[in-house]
Amino acid sequence: MTSSEPHPFLPNLDEEIVQEMLKRMGASSIADLFSDIPDEFALKRKLAIPDGQPEAVVRREVTRRLGINKAGGDSLCFLGGGVWPHYIPAAVESILSRQEFYTSYTPYQPEISQGMLQALFEYQSLMCDLLGMQACNSSMYDWASASAEAVRMAARVKGRNVFLVAESVGPQRLEVIRTYAEPAGLNIRRVPFDRKTGELDRTSLAGSLSSEVAGVYFENPNFLGVIEGSAAGIVDDIHRVGGLGVVGVDPMSLSVLKNPGSYGADVVVGEAQPLGVPMNFGGPHAGIFAVREMSLARSIPGRLIGMTTTREGNDRAFCMVLQTREQHIRRENASSNICTNQALLALAAACYLSLLGKNGFSRLGEVILKNSHYAAERLGEVNAVLSPLFEAPFFKEFAVQYKSAKSDDVYEKLGQKGIMAGYPLSRHYSGIGEAGGYCVTEVHTSEDISRLEQALKEVA
Amino acid sequence: MPPKDPKIEAWAKSKELLPVALRADEVRLPEIAELQVLRHFNRLSQMNFSVESGTYPLGSCTMKYNPKVSEYIASSPGMREAHPFQPEGTIQGLLGIFYDLSLMLCEISGMKAFSLSPAAGAQGEFAGVLMMRKYLSEHGYQEKNEILVPDSAHGTNPASAAMGGFKVIKVPSDERGLVGVEQVEKLISAKTAGMMLTVPNTLGLFESDVGKIAKVVHDAGGLMYYDGANMNALLGKARPGDMGFDVVHLNLHKTFATPHGGGGPGAGPVGVTERLQDYLPVPVVTKANGAYHLDYDRPGTIGRLKGSYANSAILLRAYCYIRLLGSDGLDNVSSLSVLAANYLLSKLNPDAFTLLQGKGLRRKHEAIVSVQGTMSGGAMKVAKGLLDYGVHSPTVYFPLTVDEALMIEPTETETLEALDEYADLLNGLHEKLLKGELEDEPKNTSVGRIDEVKASHPLSLRVKW
Fold first, then answer.
1. Most Cβ neighbours (<10 Å): which of A1, A174, B130, B267?
2. Topology of domain B70-325, per CATH?
3. pLDDT above 80 for A1
4. In the prediction, which pLDDT does B164 show?
5. Digit-coded pLDDT (tens) for A388-422
6. A/B interface, count of CB pairs below 8 Å
7. With bands split at pLDDT 50, 70 and 90, how would you rate the model's confidence at A4?
8. Do B97 and A65 touch (CB under 8 A)?
9. A228 and A196 assigned to the same domain
């Protein structure tokens, strides 16, 4: 022991208790318990990290450091691209703050974990309804890893090693797909988008399709904000060569848009963050992973919750199912290495969808549609800005083009004014000039949009 | 109901903003009033056991107390409202915290650099394996396609190695429950890319040959991977970097007290020694000219693992935990977690709960016992019996190398009284087991014993309404 100063988290940190425990178990000292560490590896100095501080000090210091961030308060956020600013109902926060949920772990003992199991089952059910899918797992790390795992699954199921990815998917997600695909020996080929409409270029797609292609991944709406008007056609195209149609969605868009099941998607991935989860500088969020056919459920990564009964058969009950896909049983032959997931955030999504319901969710979608289109028109009033850049319809995100300013400069200068906006799309795409991405949701008012418009007049 | 801006409402009037052909026919969601939703989920929460409900010695999971103050801090707008794509200059407070956290994790593990991106331990493993692969292939070792993994390893190890494109070579543990250097020498070849090792291992035993093993693996041109799931035993006591490991992942939701969230989220930062630092997954937090940066410009990187940075709010909580404990506090954490595990073990009836391997060796933060006296199923019966007494069971039937295994990890945050009570419960339940009185447990839980086989036949993964 290095000190016997009491600590609120360490009830046995008391010389008398320690001695009593050591005595009862027949050990001479704490050092004796570590005598199996070879001397050459025993650390003979203190760790060079600061001394522990009382709660009040840590709270003050860390909160002060966080206060330096331009986030919340007077700052505005018009960024999207996979993490979006949305309002979180207080009731979601209230449920999430139940320690019974957040301090539990994987429901390995289902008889005392029915709460989380049922909540996750409800998440799976709500997601299936929203996406038009038959089976949904209980979460992946995030949208990016979900899309990457979907690519690997498609290749595995189809026994093919070429996979097509729309150029208009989130560039960060494409990078994650590449990280995951490389060791599997998969060949990732990009399918360009039409520079005028922002939609996937189906002629290019047709040219890339062959019997070697395991599937195609596109997002709807895509990273440019554009809704893929011929989503059904894209899925038909891939089906004709026997591949899987994998669609990435912002679930919030399904408040007004047709769901991927309705246009034949085989696998749906996405990000549950807009459904009641804070932006949190990138996480924790929850990746969505759902499939259309029950036969594919046996190949999907991650945990699945199923409905069953007690042994006596009288009570409905829930437990984890099809665990033989998973790493703790199948080891190197598992469908994925995922173990810890993002269950608590899936719970948030279940609460969120339950609270909003059919009417609330649809109405929210209409408000987002109006706010974003209003903003697109207002930004178009700025002389140096072409807005929206693409012709195809959009939901809550849209691209604009700057006639003279650099997109990186606009983004940085807006940031300095406390407005997070204009994600520089030109970093990732050629042939669209200097373009920035904007996201407008229900959290934005006409005054906020005016402030953005004024700021753009100054910097663009 | 969403807020409506009168100005925008007026503007939008009679505008058709979305072509009918793209519109959903129907959104299928239930309609429930707010109070009823709250009652529903609050009732569910009452059907869920948690760390704050009672003793939760789930082996390998480190179910320790999760400080409340970290939850308060993580609810600051500077955390919650921060967008991962906002300019670096607007997020310096958070980046500074992450930079400091990286340095602390380096010091704790003996690594040179960390990437905080991996969302969980398994993703950290995947990153580590990919770094090993890339490093080796760039250093003329393309033939190295095998990774050694002990038979007692967590399932994620072989799964991550396989996902990373490697063939998994299983290394049997010896009668001590340890990986002997002789076994490694037998299995090593020119094809060996490296070895994944958990220290202390899943039996709770310190791998005393680790130094020799690392030398053998390094001499063969391979790399050593440290699974940090059990780091709670070694804080301030020993560092993987000093033992010869080249890559380390740490489970912040285990060792560094971030809440497990009913199965997640976690965070599994991955650290490396100097020769591997160019390969770290992007971004890496760096500091230059008094400002913090997210460095994506790393030509050697294995790439990206997360769509947007990391499980940042988990990183923040882990940082708070380290600040709350400090150097001495962390050392005490390991002292007391090891004390608790060994103490609990000493209280168990040795004829009922037997150590099959490593007899006479000290355990570290956890212990695996084999439940005696029945042909099979004894461990599960005892585990289910525990549930009736307001405590969680140990991990059952893992590791796979131990028959009728109960894997007990009490952690440093349980009191002496709770440890005594748990030991008494286990000993008492074993007597019942022998008498055949432990067949239909649990009886006092919100539902009785669940039929887990029926759940997959036929499979029901969603409610239909």
1. B267
2. Aspartate Aminotransferase; domain 2 (3.40.640)
3. no
4. 97
5. 999 999 999 999 999 999 999 999 999 999 999 99
6. 701
7. low
8. yes
9. yes
Are A229 and B22 contacting, i.e. CB atoms less than 8 angstroms apart? yes
Task: Name the B residues in 419-438 with CB < 8 Å from any A CB.
Answer: none
Inside any domain, residue A8 = no
Q: Which fold is adopted by the domain B327-434?
A: Aspartate Aminotransferase, domain 1 (3.90.1150)
Distance, CA of B166 to CA of B444 (rounded, Å) = 47
Asked if B8's CB is within 8 angstroms of A446's CB, the reply is: yes
The CA-atom distances, in angstroms, between B260 and each of B249, B282, B355 are: 17, 25, 29
Predicted complex ipTM exceeds 0.85? yes
Fill in the amino acid letter for B145: N
| Cβ-based neighbours of B181, under 8 Å, separated by 6 or more | B209, B212, B213, B216
Those residues whose C-beta lies under 8 Å from the C-beta of residue A61, and which sit 6 or more positions away, are: A53, B323
Residue A54 neighbours by CB distance under 10 Å? 12
Q: Which of residues 187-226 of A touch B (CB under 8 A)?
A: none
pTM: 0.98
Which residue's entry shows tokens 């979460």? A139
Neighbour count for residue B425 (Cβ, 10 Å) = 18
Task: Mark which of A317, A352, A387 sits at the end of a domain.
Answer: A352
Report chain B's mean pLDDT, rounded to a whole number: 96
Q: Are A183 and A161 in contact (CB under 8 A)?
A: no
Q: What is the mean pLDDT of residues A79-100?
A: 98
Nearest-by-Cβ selection for A257 from B22, B107, B442:
B22
> Rounded to whole angstroms, what are the CA distances from A383 to A377, A380, A459, B125?
12, 7, 12, 51
CB of A252 within 8 Å of any CB in chain B?
no
In this structure, are A244 and A187 located in the same domain? Answer: yes
